[in-house]
Specification:
Blueprint (H helix, E strand, L loop, with lengths): L8 E2 L2 E2 L3 H9 L2 H21 L10 H12 L6 H30 L5 H18 L11 H18 L6 H6 L2 H9 L1
């Protein structure tokens, strides 16, 4: 018997050459996903660590990127990622607008116990209404949309909590500061 033409055996299986294993790794969907997520997280983290482009609550950008890229996109296609990002923007507005309304109504009586009571009462009602689609099961991404709406509500409500007026909330954003420095 001449075994010179057969490949060396490892654990009873033919040994795959290193070149073929590397080609399989480079072309794999797992590596593609890992590289996309790593690159996207790096870019998303720039908003937190680079001072000129930083803004209040920029630390949430990396989390929201992961929501879009991992939980909302069943595959790595660009169209799926764009669709997931559009869904994220839409459901963020669904949470941010009621939070702005709650903050506006709560600021009417001025600072004090009345404002806190309004925040608590209207905030609980708004979160209860936003939580309805958080527990949905069809379509599969419905719970993600509800989670993002509740997150946006909480971020806007908490960021306006210590401010005296809604005008201060608008003026505290970097968009207004950048617009002012451009002139």
């Amino acid at each position: 018997m001449d075994n010179s033409s057969s490949k060396p055996m490892a654990n009873g299986k033919p040994r795959v050459p290193m070149r073929d294993r590397m080609r399989g790794l480079i072309l794999s969907v797992s590596l593609q996903s890992a590289l996309q997520i790593a690159a996207g997280t790096f870019v998303a983290c720039l908003f937190t660590f680079v001072r000129p482009i930083s803004f209040p609550q920029s630390c949430a950008v990396a989390t929201l990127f992961l929501v879009v890229s991992v939980m909302s996109s069943p595959n790595n296609h660009l169209g799926t990622r764009i669709n997931a990002a559009a869904g994220l923007v839409g459901c963020t507005w669904i949470g941010a607008v009621p939070a702005a309304v709650v903050a506006t109504i709560a600021k009417i009586p001025g600072p004090g116990a009345a404002s806190t009571g309004i925040y608590m009462a209207l905030g609980a009602v708004a979160i209860a209404l936003l939580s309805i689609n958080r527990v949905g099961s069809s379509p599969p991404t419905l719970w993600r949309l509800g989670m993002t709406s509740c997150l946006a509500f909480g971020l806007v409500a908490l960021s306006t909590w210590k401010l005296q007026t809604i005008v201060q909330a608008v003026l505290s954003t970097n968009w207004v500061e950048l617009k002012d420095t451009a002139n």
